[in-house]
Amino acid sequence: MVANNAINFDNPDHFGKVAVLMGGQTAEREISLQSGSAVLAALKASRIDAEAVDPSSQEALQSLTAQQYDRVFNALHGRGGEDGVVQGYLEMLRVPYTGSGVLGSALCMDKLRAKQLWQGAGLPTPEWELLEEETDLQSIGERIGFPMIIKPVREGSSFGISKVKDQAGLEKAWRVADQYDHQVIAERWISGPEFTAGIVGRQVLPLIRLETPREFYDYEAKYEADTTQYHCPCGLAGDHESELQTLALQSFDVLGASGWGRVDFMLGSDDQPWLIEVNTVPGMTSHSLVPMAAQVAGMDMQELVWRILETSERTEAC
What we know:
The chain is α+β, with helices and mostly antiparallel strands. It contains eleven helices and 13 strands. The protein has helices at 29-45, 58-66, 85-93, 102-109, 111-120, 137-144, 170-178, 219-223, 238-254, 289-296, 301-310; strands at residues 18-21, 50-53, 71-74, 128-131, 148-152, 162-164, 184-188, 194-200, 203-204, 208-211, 229-231, 260-267, 273-279. Strands 8, 9, 10, 11, 12 and 13 form a six-stranded antiparallel beta sheet that branches. Strands 4-7-5-6 form a four-stranded antiparallel beta sheet. Helix 1 (29-45) packs across helix 11 (301-310). The protein is globular.
């Protein structure tokens, strides 16, 4: 699943003038600024004419037309940047952009619909329940079992996510998640190692196995802690890793994702894989997983960003 197609860095002018979208107005703004800055530096190192655009206001978005950019590298995380909204805007402007289109972005951002589609396609994802005002929390505990994990349906970077160990903590965790999204799910807790599969084009990068002393791979483990361990190679036998890479790409395709992204999944105690979520604009910070896996595949940051920018080609005819 790992390709070694050589990159020709001799023609950066092919991409024209590139806007790197970063920042925005979501809970993930600071992470997006870090990702965008890393992307911008790599593009400039390849002599690509690129500049930052922070769409934190309507005026900033309008600069996409005023400055006549030839394409966009989207480094916006979370709502507005990763859920199909900015993708639809760019489609209307007829400006090519990196990553998934409108539908794929929207479906991947919505954890509930993603799980429903995976279930319909026969792909493994942990059981879940949608929490609503009329929901009997006692019955949720009985059906899902403890521990469980509570998640806002449309949020990233583990914002609003809690591990719940008993009935007493269930309502509190629900209210925390509800601050980020009024749609919240309770999901069965999977005991086992967590893996992630980066995807660039049709290439699935080497899997990373995540290890943290925290309850789970939460915001602090992702962006702040120095105790998180990233194992790449992941330690699985070659055939097993290949099977999981194939599953990751299949789950990506079922949700209509394209271009590049990252699939997160768990392995249960019986080695059963369980799909958790797909990120269509993964982080590109110093702690980020896609650059880490790309490095193991022999792809430095400069080449990775170039390859991702090439995924914008699919929208040039829109």
